[in-house]
Amino acid sequence: AAPPPSGPGLSNVIRKKLMGYVGFANLPNQVHRKSVRKGFQFTTMVVGESGLGKSTLVNTLFNTTLYPAKEPLPPSAERPKTVAIESIGADIEENGVRLHLTVVDTPGFGDFVNNDDSWKPILDNIESRFDSYLEQENRVNRQKIVDNRVHACLYFIQPTGHSLKQIDVEFMRQLHTKVNLIPIIAKADTMTDEEIAAFKARVLSDIEYHNIHIFQAPTYDNEDEETIAEAEEIASKIPFAVVGSDKLVATPDGREVRGRAYPWGVVEVDNEDHCDFVKLRQMLVRTYMEELREYTNDVLYENWRTEKLLGMGVAQDQTVFKEVNPAARMQEERVMHEAKLAKMEAEMKMVFQQKVQEKEAKLKQSEEELYARHKDMKDALEKQRQELEGKKGRIESGRPLTPEKNSTRRKGVFGGR
Ligand code: GTP
Questions:
Q1: pTM for this entry
Q2: Which regions are flagged for Basic residues bias (predicted)?
């Protein structure tokens, strides 16, 4: 038998067969019950130029008139100068599962003569939601964290049939690391199937050229073939070419469907042969809503948070804890201040000792000099005293004072005798 996996950080794992039913197989049901009781929060943002069908599509997606259709502004009305951010919240319920849905709208996007910075207020809004989440995480009491972060951003592309416009590229480039981008070709009923296919290819190549990351349905190794095939099919439809309508219309064969009626026929919203609405709903609601929430939390928010804390000068996880804990932060600052004071004191002591040593050395030197001078003077005086003693002795004994000088004289004096 193969040895159990071991190594650094891995405890030995022993596979054991159970002797009977224990019950942890019921864990997924426990999680299910708990999450149904708690309900879910989901925030989606819609961005795109005015009149592309954003309100209609949101209503179509959630099958409710959550989003009131706005009357176009009369020509004389004062128009806002910047992109505004408006959000609408609604509690919806399906088969006992509650969902608190928030739709963030961005009226004014792309409506100005100069749209260079249209993305800025939207990025600010997304980041301020991250900020608010971080602030809640750092509270002493974290019982009721409200997750207002944007989990998905539906970006509406005008069905021009050409390629992405500068404003589209700029928006996606600026936002793709902060939000799950889901590009949508609006009002797809205005183009033929061939035009849509060619337009999709151009949009995708633009996205790839600009290294823009759009949300992809994830697949995991241990998943069954059906799930993988479903994810691949959804991925093959990106950017979703959609048709929105919250009105029921009658088809020639007598059915009532959500769609748009034209003189030549009916475009059905929920018909996969007519548009990608069903696949979009699968991506956003039915299959990958939890993945969108998870990716927002684990990747987008986490990266933003790391960057933010690094920007604040926090270098390591340990320090991060202190940074977000005011008491620990004050303590750390006090310790740092005390260490600084102690260092200054030590430096001052060293300078003082150095000065004292220098002074002592100087004093010692002058003392030695004085001593030497004193000794010289003493020697000179002693010599003088001895000379005087000699003179005195000679005077007393009647000998001449300077024997050398008087030697001839002495010779003369005494020699003559
Ligand atoms: P603002 O509120 O100005 O931002 O517009 P909006 O993007 O929310 O557009 P809205 O949903 O109000 O739709 C604008 C017009 O487009 C309405 O007359 C809709 O009926 C129409 N419309 C919406 N969706 C579609 C669509 O898929 N195809 C077509 N042909 N028209 C649509």
A1: 0.70
A2: 408-417
Q: What residue segments make up the domains of the chain, in order of their start?
A: 29-324
- Mutate which of 56, 112, 270 to test ligand 1's pocket (most atoms within 8 Å of Cβ)? 56
Extended beta strands in 167-227, E state: 181-185
Topology of 29-324 in CATH? Answer: Rossmann fold (3.40.50)
Q: In what order do the strands lie in the sheet with 256-262?
A: 248-250, 256-262, 265-268
Question: Residue 194 and residue 198: Cα distance in Å, rounded?
Answer: 6
What residue ranges line ligand 1, CB within 6 angstroms?
A: 50-56, 69-70, 107, 187, 189-190, 243-244, 260
Residue-level pLDDT at 305: 92
Closest C-alpha among 71, 61, 247, 239 to residue 158:
239
Residue 43 burial class via C-beta count within 10 angstroms: exposed 0-12, middle 13-18, buried 19 and up: buried
How would DSSP label each residue in 70-114?
PPPPPTTSPPPSS---EEEEEEEEETTEEEEEEEEE-TTTT-SS-
pLDDT at position 399 is: 73
Distance 406 CA to ligand 1 centre (A): 145
> Does the pLDDT of residue 65 top 80, yes or no?
no
- Mean pLDDT for the chain? 83
The SS3 of residue 258 is strand
Mean pLDDT of 249-259: 87
Q: How confident is the model at residue 413 (pLDDT cuts 50, 70, 90)?
A: very low
pLDDT given for residue 186 in this prediction: 93
ipTM of model = 0.95
- What confidence score (pLDDT) does residue 3 get? 52
Q: Is the pLDDT of residue 348 over 50?
A: yes
The three-state secondary structure class of 268 is strand
Spacing, Cα 242 to ligand 1 middle (Å): 12
Which helix (DSSP H) or strand (DSSP E) does residue 260 occupy?
strand 256-262
